[in-house]
């Protein structure tokens, strides 16, 4: 077994004249659409803290929140010096550069504003969005793998891959590790909590578990993922991704603690 040589796949899935469609774009659209339909379905189930129409209308808000937050997060958290000296490049999203942490903040802010606008109970929307978020994470990490980017560190494990743009050394397929943990495992945990233990009766609990679960999964995989070259390793061999996940872990733990102190909402 292994190491396997990864084919140098074109990041462009197909093109129609001037329209160029990339694998990452397809993953982004697929994750949003699947998450949107799941949110609509979940909104119609007990406890009915919002309507399926509310979840349906939130799609446009979520799209803008993820795109704006993800792009600004990448600009501010990863390469602020470059973009401050090249302001027009900030708008060139087709060249790549999105941050999950920024995208999450953008989506959370959009959900908060939407809940206020509709007069919804706090976390009524955010909890179902958190339950659907692993779909987008799964598709996004698979797209990273298909693009042969965000590869892992050098390793001798039998399932290692040689990524053409990373040199001749075999490396961890860390994109698939993240797809499994952040996508599949986290989705299973959240949906078991919702459908078996009725977690949505405690607003904020599902969102808290998502934050804690993502932070732990990301921090674990970062030990096998190649750090960004322009950032490298920090103190004690830590990475920027781990430090960015720490606030998520703290906020998530607080949300779980807070939700458990509140009386569960009545089912209708």
Give a written overview of the molecule:
With 268 residues, the protein is mainly alpha-helical. It has one domain. Helix content is 59%, strand content 5%. It contains eight helices and four strands. α1 runs antiparallel to α5, α2 runs antiparallel to α4 and α7 runs antiparallel to α8. The chain is globular and about 60 Å long. The mean pLDDT is 92.
- How does the helix and strand content classify structurally? mainly alpha
Distance between the termini: 54 Å
Structurally, how many domains make up the residues?
1
The gyration radius over C-alpha positions equals 19 Å
- Main sheet record: 2 strands, parallel
Element string (H = helix, E = strand): EEEHHHHHEHHH
Summary?
By secondary structure, the chain is mostly helical. The chain is built from 8 helices and 4 strands.
Which key terms come to mind for this protein?
5% strand, 59% helix, single chain, 8 helices, 4 strands, two-stranded parallel ribbon, two-stranded antiparallel ribbon, mainly alpha, globular, 268 residues
